Amino acid sequence: MLQPAANAERRDAADAILDAAEAVFADHGFAAATTRAIADLAKVNLALIHYYFRTKEQLFEAVFVRRSDEINDRRRRILAELFSGDSEPALEQILVALLRPTIEVGRMSNGGGFHYARMVVNVASGHDERSTRLTGMQYNGIAREFIDAIQKVMPGISREMAVWSYMHAINIAMPLMARNHRPAVLSDGLCRDDDLDAVIDNAVTFIAAGIRALAISHAVDEAGRLRSGNNSMPA
Fold first, then answer.
1. Cα separation of 171 and 193, whole Å?
2. Global pTM value
3. What pLDDT is stored for residue 3 in this prediction?
4. 218 Cβ partners below 8 Å, 6+ apart?
5. Cα end-to-end distance, the chain, whole Å
6. In angstroms, rounded to a whole number, what is the distance separating the alpha carbons of residues 171 and 186?
7. Is the dihedral of CA 95, 96, 97, 102 positive or negative?
8. Where are the alpha helices (DSSP H) in the chain?
9. Is 107 helix (H, G, I), strand (E, B) or coil?
10. The pLDDT value given to residue 99
């Protein structure tokens, strides 16, 4: 039986490998990353990578799953708290639950979340089998939970529009998560992405207004189609 010190040593080695892999995969992508570079950065023997994770593919998946599980656990806790009260949450609160855990990852003090943010942006936009599988495995379930939540707080919004609402929200969140300082560059320093609350407030205000406009536009289009159909019916 392993002693506590030995267990802690194993966890430390595995965590060091995951942290190093996160940085190497973020910098070089899956194809160009090597387990040798990861071992060197983690300051471990190369054999330990194969002992803990067997293959580069499994190591990449472990890195991706580690952070996405943390993000989605927080999202679910916040979402559950919002719907546990007597009053129904506002759309803006649903969007904060969706965005804050995601954007905060890129601002972790140890820098690891920043590497993951770059990884997840690449995976989410990838069309290869690995990217599609990991995105589906880690994010399809939570996506449907937020789509359900949008429909609950937006009575009358169609499933189609709720899905588009979720997709637009995520597409706005991704560059904010990766934090490439582009707003500061484009605004000559007027827009700062180091103020987390301001970044989230601006994003939520923009997305919520867009969702409401989308729902109204779709409802108007549907009403127009119904009227057109009724007018074309024979007397």
1. 17
2. 0.86
3. 57
4. 157, 158, 160, 161
5. 85
6. 19
7. positive
8. 4-32, 35-42, 46-53, 56-83, 91-105, 112-124, 129-153, 159-178, 182-186, 196-231
9. coil
10. 96
Report pLDDT for 198.
92
> What pLDDT shows up at residue 176?
87
Give the pLDDT of residue 39: 97
Q: Show the tokens assigned to 209.
A: 């207004």
Q: Which residues of the chain have pLDDT under 70?
A: 1-9, 109-111, 221-235
Domains of the chain: 1-54 (1.10.10.60), 66-231 (1.10.357.10)
Kindly state the tokens that stand for 17: 């490998």
| Residue 224, both tokens | 């127009």
Give every CB contact of residue 177 below 8 A, 6+ residues apart in sequence: 102, 103, 105, 106, 117, 120, 121
d(CA 215, CA 92) in angstroms, rounded, equals: 15
Rounded Cα distance, 126 and 84, in Å: 36
User: For residues 112 and 19, is the Cβ–Cβ distance under 8 A?
Assistant: yes
**153 near 107, Cβ under 8 Å?**
no
**Residue 82 is encoded by which pair of tokens?**
């919002």
Answer whether 107's CB lies under 8 Å from 176's CB. no
CA-CA distances (angstroms) from residue 14 to 8, 27, 49, 78, 90?
A: 10, 20, 8, 29, 41
* Cβ-Cβ contacts under 8 Å for 194 (sequence gap 6 or more): none
